[in-house]
Amino acid sequence: MLIKEGSIRIPSGCAVSAIIDRSKKRFSGEAIIRSISVMHERSNGLGGGFAAYGIYPEYKDYYAFHIFYENAEVKKNCELFLDDNFDIINLSKIPTQKVSEIVDEPLIWRYFVIPHPTKLKASQLDEREFVVKAVFKINTTIKGAYVFSSGKNMGVFKAVGFPEDVGRFYKLDEYEGHCFTAHGRYPTNTPGWWGGAHPFALLDYSVIHNGEISSYDANRRSIEMYGYKCTLLTDTEVITYIIDYLHRKMELDFNEIAAVIAAPFWQTIARMPEDERKEHEYLRNVFSSLLITGPFSIIVGFQDGVVALNDRLKLRSMVVAEKDDLVYVASEESAIRIIEPTLDKIWYPKGGEAVIIKTKEESKSK
Amino acid sequence: MKINAKNIEYRELNQLIKKSKGDITIDNCIGQRYIASGLSNKKIKINGTPGNALGAYLDGAEITVLGNVQDATGDTMNDGKIIVHGSAGDALGYAMRGGRIYVRGHAGYRTGIHMKEYETKKPVIIVGESAGSFLGEYLAGGILVVLGLSGTGMVVGNFPGTGMHGGKILLRGNRIPQSLPPQISISPIEKGNFGEVETYLREYCEVFSLDYEGITKEPFFILKPNSSNPYHQMYVTN
To answer: Nearest Cβ partner of B49 from A271, A313, A334?
Structure first.
């Protein structure tokens, strides 16, 4: 029997990579596959995945749900629920191709939806909160159904396998987007199931993560108080919900979020100039249980760009580079050089220093 | 002998290196790990970006990289030389016990941690620009030098020399790092009085065609374990 995330914990490396075109020019997913494949040794074949932004322009006003189903029966139940709560504009199987390395695939479907106006009104929630509630409802009550992507004009594609094989399986080279992130998984605490592969996503937030957070349970207990449900016992899931909570609900910007989840040591804060010190003290005190300890390098995708962040001790590697409008982030420099040998600039962000890369329209407006 | 590393997997590349006689030039290197690990008696020139653990356990070979290197370069290196014309990633020279690493650019976090020396074995790392946090953490021996050649800011990140109980760290420039533990003493170096470090500094300048006199004109500080404030009773009373 297939053992899933959440039913077993095995005591744990990973690879991350991202490419973003700040001018929002769209390019094929082929480049990100080449990038992540250079870091093959960082994965063990138990999970690979991609988040792609700007890939559904024709449906950009609709939430794109990507759902795994265990069987047709579950699919029927889930579609009843979706039909009840959303207008479904389009639905289809997500196109895949046979790849000998990828086996045991579930049913993989995609729905473009918008909350049903009367249901939304009756719920007294804002639209995005309504969608989040629906995603959690499906993932916690419809057994065998798992929504792994729920944002607008973006999508997550993931599976058990090496990331380059997963990319070929989903024919990622046939998608065009302005931003891609990729993850190669080396699961260390959980067995490696399709749902447990990275990226983890909620609305248009997606998180890929290399590392292992030691504050998992403290963070989980804290975030579950705000209505999130951690179902997979995998640390990246809790990071995704923390980001959603701090950015969407608390409206913190990503520098402030970095000061919460990768807060500097108190002794480092003590040496800061007055204003900066006060801000850091405030954030650490208010959100103390959302401090993430242990090694991590994460890349967060969101509607306006990506954010790269290391734990405060920088226990995992991270390199950032620029070439014209393109910005690259990866665990290793070689994963960037393979797609762009000549770079304008390359640097190594410090631990706890958020590198925020926004697409140009948005950076103008904010 | 020339090796084109394009599309070659790391095991195959390392076998090619071990089999080949004489000096080697590797072109199009792209992320292959463990290059030249444990190797002695060879000169290797690398064009491109070698992968993690370049020259791990190196035992006498000389590696020159025309580019940047990634993480864990010279891990537990015993002897030989690694010359990097670009910058280095994290954990450079981890637990190194002999030989020299010269980096023209920056070095990442945890440079030279756990380095040690014994009798004639004395590892040396010289970094041209800055080094990240935790430089020389738990240093037990050897020499670390950070020159800050073009920077105006601090040449090291936070917490240099934490847990250091041997060896020395030399920093060029006027700014003394904050966050030094009380078990570390810091003092200026008298003009030109580099002692045993002079040979290495001169060699470094020669390798990268830099002006030794110009560089050593600037002030230097030296960090050493503070013998009047040792680590006793740090954890338990005994």
So the answer is: A334
**B128 domain residue, yes or no:** yes
Please pick, among A14, A78, A179, A230, the residue that the annotation labels catalytic. Answer: A14
Is B232 part of any domain? no
CATH number of the domain within which B76 lies: 2.160.20.60
Whether residue A334 lies within 8 A of chain B, CB to CB, comes out as: yes
Distance (Å, rounded) from C-alpha A152 to C-alpha A111? 11
Q: Which domain holds residue B121?
A: 2-225
Q: Is residue A141 part of a domain?
A: yes
- By mean pLDDT, which of A25-34, B76-85, B180-189 is the weakest? B180-189
Q: Please state, in angstroms and rounded to a whole number, the distance separating the CA atoms of residues A224 and A289.
A: 12
Q: Looking at the predicted structure, is the pLDDT value of residue A365 above 50?
A: no
CB-count exposure of residue A30 (10 Å: 0-12, 13-18, 19+)? middle
CATH number of the structural domain spanning residue A144: 3.60.20.10
* Whether residue A14 lies in the annotated active site: yes
Containing domain of residue A174, as a range? 15-216+299-358
For residue B131, being part of any structural domain is answered with yes
Partner-chain residue, chosen from B49, B109, B157, that has the shortest CB–CB distance to A337: B49
- Is the pLDDT score of A3 beyond 60? no
Range from B22-26, B72-76, B230-234 carrying the lowest mean pLDDT: B230-234
pTM higher than 0.80, yes or no? yes
In a domain, B61, yes or no: yes
Confidence at residue A1, expressed as pLDDT on a 0 to 100 scale: 44
Which tokens hold the place of A16? 């991350």
A314 touches chain B (CB under 8 A): yes
Check whether A339 has a pLDDT greater than 60. yes
Considering its fold, how many domains does chain B have in total? 1
pLDDT of residue B230: 66
Residues 6+ apart with CB under 8 A from B81: B62, B63, B99, B100, B101, B102
